[in-house]
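[job 0412] stage=complex_fold ligand=pyridoxal-5'-phosphate status=START
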Amino acid sequence: MDIFEKLLKHMGPIGEHSNRAHGYFAFPKLEGEIGPRMNFRGNEKIVWSLNNYLGLANHPEVRATDAKAAADYGLASPMGARMMSGNTNYHEKLEKELSDYMGKEDTTLLNYGYQGIMSSIDAICNRRDVIVYDAECHASIIDGLRLHQGHRYVFKHNDIDDLEKQLKRAEELSKTNGGGILVITEGVFGMAGDQGKLKEIAALKDKYEFRFLVDDAHGFGTMGKTGAGTGEEQGVQDKIDLVFNTFAKSGASIGAFISGDKAIINYLRYNSRSQIFAKSIPLPLVIGHLKRVELMRKHPEMKAKLWENVNKLQKGLRDRGFDIGQTNSPVTPIYLQGDIPEATAMCLDLRENYNIFCSIVVYPVIPKGQIIYRLIPTAAHGDEDIELTLEAFTQTKAKLDKKEYKVAEIPMV
Ligand SMILES: Cc1ncc(COP(=O)(O)O)c(C=O)c1O
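[job 0412] stage=complex_fold status=DONE, emitting structure tokens
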């Protein structure tokens, strides 16, 4: 049998809608400078789907630094993996700056967040170890678990009683096998916006022996007094053994890093397969990251402005009766009920007639009958953006409630 045959029969859960969705709901093209207003199919939209939390993507100093570094070094430099020929003083300087920011002894850069966290998990754990992880962890963590040849136990999302149950099982097994335990959760869950219960999990270290890895992709730059993340926010940064962050969100770039104790980070530096067998981050990105970290630390007003907008948007939605769940971060979900055609018809109305561009999540990512719109407020949004959006959602939700979006199938766009 041709191995490709099955791929042609079934495009996968999202791909099966591709003929109707492509270019609009899937793979849309937002054009113009990154910001709260961008062009989509030739018309200006208010954009709520970019993780440009601090508005750094278009910060003049960021743009100037990125451009100069690209002109000075080109995208090739340095060539090769860090370990072989791709190390520079700038890479090491950035690692030092990040360690200082994170309050950790050392940091190693990861050329992509996704592969970086997978490899970190892979490098830390052997077949005798047990991983205990939150059920709603990001796909990159789940793929890291797939590489793990030992046992793994999942705990119900943010459920500390269930975590304890799983820790007891893990403790027994690791004793028998002579391995250790790694607990993994996230600082801020990127769909629902609720924080991981880092404080409660860290407190369990008094009762159980485990190491604690936190993926703080959405917390970096947005949470904590200095923006160091959710560990800082909850006062337990020192109890987190390894904190993973990406530049792909607040950092408005690409690349990631993991911070922790010197000896452990050095181990990861020498043993993370996605880093030792892959090209290092190009210098323009590294130099650009140094500028971003400098701005994050020197200008707390960017984070203050982000939170001003977060509070306005979330309060506005709650006051208007919207269910935005348990978010306690900038990530702002709006929970509604409807089938997939209704959800897409509403999204189409929001985009075409109200000029609101935001992400929409439906089955199979979430259970059938649910719709989640996910809004990402940033420091760059203005009051008018928020007001227009609140009004647009109020009007379209009324139409949804009146079944005005009931259509037989996903509208053709
Ligand atoms: C929680 C979380 N972890 C890891 C990643 C992967 O990071 P990157 O985009 O830098 O590969 C993401 C990105 O979407 C994320 O949201």
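The chain has two domains: 5-53+300-401, 60-298.
[job 0412] exit 0
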